[in-house]
Amino acid sequence: MKTRVTEILGIEYPIIQGGMAWVAEHHLAAAVSKAGGLGIIGAGGAPAEFVREQIQLVKKVTDKPFGVNIMLMNPEADAIAQVVVDEGVKVVTTGAGNPSKYMKLWKMAGVKVIPVIASVAMAKLMQRGGADAVVAEGMESGGHIGSITTMSLVPQIVDAVEIPVIAAGGIADGRGFAAAFMLGAEAVQIGTRFVAATESIVHDNYKAMLIKAKDIDSAVTGMTTGHPVRSIRNKMTKEYLKMEKEGADFMELEKLTLGSLRKAVMEGDVVNGTVMAGQIAGLVKKEQPCKEIITEIMEQGSLLLGKTD
Fold it and tell me: How confident is the model at residue 309 (pLDDT cuts 50, 70, 90)?
């Protein structure tokens, strides 16, 4: 299926893997790219040299296009922005800020820039700033979220900008894929389902909790701080929500979650760690290779859109 997004990025299928911190490392990114989508290395809060190493590891196993997600609040964002250029990465997605300060650097190096946004105003700002596309991410997503649902957000952004729109949030199968295209998107970004991929390095406890999750099993913490995060309910989220209700200040809440994502992803502590996952987790039924995931989504999505041969 060809769209403006597949043409811009040089990929076979209009499927982008989310840049999830600690999860989206070289194994997952390479597997998604080799399967015809766009694999993404999630820089998160990692140092620049770690990101460089991850990029080089992907390049060792595939010559397919891949990208790097830069969380702009990372203290080493400036250095990572330069690493992307130095290593010849051709796609950058960004989050948690405005990437305009890096736009000239990236454009001169031929890097395609795709900010993740959660509002029409930000989409317009990114288009004016030279973005090649935007990811419209609804609040159904796992991890850091906005306040508008995917179903409402995507068509409004499609109507507001001329650059391609990539839909994210609540998409895990061909039905979500087809729905996103009916709303005007030209690709989808998928995170939660890829967390359970065979090539994903997350701890088995994390995968098991995700696969067992039901539709109502996620909670949003941080609403009072202005930094809402969606994850699967556990002891940590229960304590966090209790502290929020009691009026705990930002620093107290930050102490509770410091290092909690790594604790869940790497150590398998799904009781006290942060198990980030979207509301679509109930559709993730088993662990599968990335190639199988993408093939299933494309076959079902294409059939529903009437694009099969």
Answer: very low
